[in-house]
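hiii so my PI (J.) wants the whole complex modelled not just the main chain, which honestly fair. so below is everything: two entries, each one labled with what it is. i double checked the lines twice but i was tired so who knows lol
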Amino acid sequence: MKRFVGMWLVIGAVLVGLAALFQAFYLAAALASAVAVRLGAPGFYGSAVANTVTLMVVLLMTVAALLTVAERKWSAAMQDRVGANRIRVFGTALGGVPYLLADALKMLTKESTYPAARSRFLFELAPVLAFAPAFALFAVIPVGPDVQVLGQKVALVVASPDVGLLWIFALAGLAVYGTTLAGWASNNRAALLGGVRAASQMVSYEVSLGMSLVGVMLAYRTLNLQEMTVAQGAAVLGPVPALGILLQPLGFLVFFTSSFAETKRAPFDLPEGESEIVGYFVEYSGMKFGMLFLAEFVEVVILAGVVTAVFLGGWHPIFFEGWLKASLPPLVFGGVCAMAFMAKLVVLCWLQLVIRWLLPRFRFDQVQALCWKMLLPAALINLFVTGAAVLLDPSLQLLAWIGVAEIVAIFGVTAAAARAVAPAHAHEGSHPAHAAGH
Amino acid sequence: MPYQLENQPADVRESLYFPEVFRAIGIVIRTFWRNAFFSRDANPDVLARDLSYSRVTTVMYPEEKTTYAPGYRGLHRLVPRVDGRPRCVACYMCATACPAQCIYIEAAEVEGDPIEKWPTRFVIDELRCVVCGFCVEACPKDAIRMDTGLHPPPTYERTGQVYDEKRLLRGPPVSYDYDPWLRRGAKLPEGDMKRMRDLARPFAQDAKDEFSQTPGFSVRALASEAKGRGDGGS
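here's the output for the full assembly
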């Protein structure tokens, strides 16, 4: 019981702390914006620089690094274990967080070894190419709304270009190069096999990834993620807001699955299947391996961020939003909104780890079949249905009802009578003589 | 609990793949909730744990230890008499029976006693010991036992694994009414003699006999005693 109360206290404290942190981020952005205006530049130049530091370097990297710890502790909780707890600070394991420092220290101080027959330039370039696109993806993800702070209109987003979603597709496409070149430049047949697998898998899923988001573009009539998030706050079915997951449940599923495959984590971890091939980063050691490893976790965070922004209403707290906006000062409201974004993002990261520890790895033909035979047709059907619905009813009500029907259908199929897996007292029924012996 | 699973072709819902994945996610989330939000029952007897909330069955080894079965053959001990001397009469039966030849005994006569012997040196090399328990079986005086419930604790030097009579002599004293020193009336202080006679009991006829186990004997007490002595008992 003590642990139960403690966990909720920790969660509450983290949420309050995040709200305070994001207010500090807003202030930093506003200050930088004011400085930029003073220097004669547009205000968002300054806030973009401040947000690059606060959101990408501080927030994204911290969350990605914490995920390496969370993967150990959360997987342990899913498997009835305790998880990493041997590093103790003043007698407490602190939820395994000190492992972060130990890992960083280990990665940074390890010897870097180089295969003699490598392609020198590409070998050095590959970790950067794997890490940089994933990292840069976060630039367009809106963490907080537009808020007037210190007379400056700032938002917690590095850049809000009109091509937002296309930027995501472009950089997600670039991420293939890192893994493929890592496999090629190592001049190792196992690494090359991993790299080739990564290339074919990621190129395949790119297609359904793109298709699944076209429906969202049609529904919200924009590619800009900040505008898309704002559009999700509008009520569509009575008080229910037009969340992406309501309008596009099928698109959400296809997008989530496809981008999960893009992160190359189990059950899609064929490029690094430890059992038969050892992956595109066999030859990498030290911090170069660390970059490839961290890129995976950054991708997890990015995926969670994009799904949050596009499908889960982004920074909208959803509940009591009007009341919050009316009663809180703008700076605090912005902080609470960004906190809501982070909460959704962390829940999605957690969901990805659940799936990663739940499902066994696919065979390669199953990976391709899932993509081409299931996700791509589903994305196309979703696209046509969405297009027709938006054409018939531009107020999105029809689309929302279709979405509700899809959600009900998915729940219905899932809840439909399952097979009796373990019949009660099966061992007694099947061995009457044995049962009589008791 | 293992059960027979009939091999049957996948139905439509199963071949759709995603519904089953959703169901599985639900199961994992339930497990996560139980283990992450409720504290672990730390009962060292894992089978007796209350798994209705947290299902974690981990035993945090150095801090928590599972209990061993009563017949567990642990580190040897030399059983003391009430006057503090070992019961051992240096007959070399254990050293002879030992297949690993890990027992070394030096016998000496008890001063002032025409018959009795005792070991001035009794050394067991735990690195050589194969933990077969033959020495315990061979002993005619119930002087060596393996009922401490301890592993030989790790040491940084090999010499740390060589146990001499000072480290082996531990645990509660034992007396039997057939003990020759009691019947003969050896030269012992009168108080010790009386206590030995009071504690004396008939020799155990089989291993399940309650007298073959030391009453009131506690593994934990021995461990903390060893810890206090600083020989790394646990």
